[in-house]
Amino acid sequence: MNWYAYDTWIVIIGALCAIAAALPGTFLVLRRMSMMGDAISHAVLPGLAVAFLVTGTRASLAMFAGAAIVGVLTAVFTQWISSWGKVDRGASMGIVFTTLFAFGLLLIVQAADHVDLDPGCVLYGAIELTPLDVLADIEVGGILLEIPRAAVVLGAVAVVNLLLIVSLYKEYKISAFDPDLATTQGVNAGLMHYLLMTQVAVTTVASFEAVGSIIVIAMLIVPAATAHLLTDRLGLMLVLATGFGALSSFVGHVLALWLPPLMGFAGTTTSGMMAVATGLFFLLAWLFSPRYGVVRRIGRQRLDVAELPEEERLA
Amino acid sequence: MKRLPLILTTVVLTLAGTGMAGAHGDSPSPARSAGLYNTQFAWPSMEDIFRVATLQDYNTRLVVLTTFILGLASGLIGSFLLLRKRSLMGDALSHACLPGIGLAFIIMVAAGETGKYLPGLLAGAAITGVAGVGLVMAVRNTSRIKDDTAMSLVLSVFFGGGISILAMAQDMPGASAAGLEYFIYGKTASMVMQDFWLLTGVAGLVLLGSLLLMKEFTLLCFDEGYGKSLGWPVHTLDLVMLALVTLVTVVGLQAVGLILIIAFLITPAAAARFWTENLKKMLLLAAVIGALSGWLGAAVSALLPRLPAGAVIVLTAASLFLLSMIFGSARGVLKRALGHARLKRKVGRQHLLRAVYEIQEAHCENESQAPANVPVPFDELSRKRSWTLKQLRKLIQRAGREDHIESFDGETLSLSESGYGEAARITRNHRLWEIFLITHADIAASHVDRDADSVEHVLSPDMVRELEQKLDMRTVPASPHPLNQGESLS
């Protein structure tokens, strides 16, 4: 296994994506809206299609704006259907994203079926190719650093997400755990909901434009769920989630390089392996978490029985 | 905030409109100038419509029948998912099928087969699909992680694994894995007879399973804890239900694709929910709506050029959902809005009549007697509650339409005979309820007016009779608290 400079870049870009996603993702997990990332990544298709049809190019910015707008609309429509129609939120999410996806597919097929704009290319942005798209060269201490565009984009999204959550930490916290209490404390819970949804939409769109959708769906939820098994404190949970995300990026890339030759295959995709790596960390936490792990849980049941007085143990 | 929906809708429609204009209008686009566009659009002739409607083409017949049956089966099983608040299970499940497809391909190629043997791929998909569902259940049952996070977790990790496995399979010598991922994106318009028979078999199985286990599934949907306390194998039943979902998903997946199968599992059931509170009716309706969307969507797609069947079916189902959400006879938005408005009118009328009656009481000399039906000054009435003058005039106007008002000249108001009787009855109900609350529910006399207010408008005649018996009162009792003016302002 040979490690080149662009392998380092792939890991860095993956880690930036993980940090950008894990911050809003933590709140998605706490608010029981984990499927939002998947829903948004499917639903943005009409946004991409309309942006393409209006501008006539695949220019990044227009596509990004179109996708982000539809991403936020997904959250808005889901909210309307579940509050006006009194439909379960999961179901309304499903209805909204399948409908938007179908609408986007229709637009594409009607107008641009011969242009390179198919769901496949949207869903599989390739992280392996990101180091080739260089935005700027910087020389630091005699070493030439070729900074990829994806690193800049995802770094910016991560910084914005971090700043938002640090500056509005109290508001995020209270509206995630108790929206009604938030309202009585003068925090606009509805506004916080849409702010979070906007963050999720922008992060999702920016990530899968750069590195592919599967990484961001995994990075939104799995590291946050892992952290949730390890701590009860929100601040620590955010730190752990970003940490596990970044670590998964490294482990995933190593797995992608190391595993296939071991089993006699030529190679595989890094993005898929990064998602698998997040799953491995979750598996470990699920089994061995000191407080909420399965092993600990079984151990505690045994212990509890052993501690009981003799007569009660028989009952 | 009220206008936000309107503005957003306008923006969306405008965007969609410009999109359409870009597609059909004259705006120049690079592709168009390259001469690649085929902009001819012809409405289908009557003959075409007749051919599709009577299913004369072999291909149309197959697509329409298959989607019809799939809609039927998934509408049925989707209803149970919806009631279990697990609609997105289909989403997680269909993504979890991908690694199974890749693994089955690799194993079959390694064994010297072609690798694209359909039953083998289906079996692989079903195995990892079931594993994914099992993992969702295990994570949910043994940790603090909730349903939605568990589903999202399995979805992304399994799908990521699937992509990795497919990428590995891509360079296996001796077989081409190209197009394998389209297994989960579907091929609605190019189905074969095999799909039809597979789907028919699965639909039959789902129908049979749901009918045989109707009682068990119903209990599971509405009161899992009660089922457990009766000693029912709740977890096993849950798995049976999810196994049926897996069957529909796996077989439907390769026939019509990921998005359509997710939509089919959710949308018809959610639409049916607006029409009925009865589970059996809902199941039937969901199956009908699913089948109808499949049939209509496939037919429209066959009639018009360049409309992918899967997308049209999803949009048809979504339109049926929207119609149901607005006009649904049990929980529709319109129905609930009307009910709300009707209750508001009723409450307003009762407040007006009681206020008039209480003023008449105040004017009455002899306290033990019922007050006479004397005209009441408008000023005094407007001070009684926190009405604006406009609201009060509107209330009086409406009460007049119901023959409760004898005359109203802007200064004084007099009730008709029926209005007076109604006012006495309403006041009596209110006081009965107040006294009941004070004597039986220990609510302080100073607070009882408001508490009574929230229930009295929906008291049934039976309830009033029971109150009469309990309190042994036949006439209008005196108010248990002082009736000062503007009491309800406090």
Automatic annotation (TrEMBL), chain A:
GO terms for cellular component: ATP-binding cassette (ABC) transporter complex. Signal peptide: none annotated. The chain crosses the membrane at residues 6-30, 37-55, 61-81, 93-112, 150-169, 238-259, 265-288. GO terms for biological process: response to zinc ion; transmembrane transport. It is found in: Cell membrane. Its main location: membrane. SUPFAM superfamilies: ABC transporter involved in vitamin B12 uptake, BtuC (SSF81345). Keywords: Cell membrane, Membrane, Transmembrane, Transmembrane helix, Transport. It is a multi-pass membrane protein. InterPro entries: ABC_BtuC-like, ABC_TroCD. This is Metal ABC transporter permease.
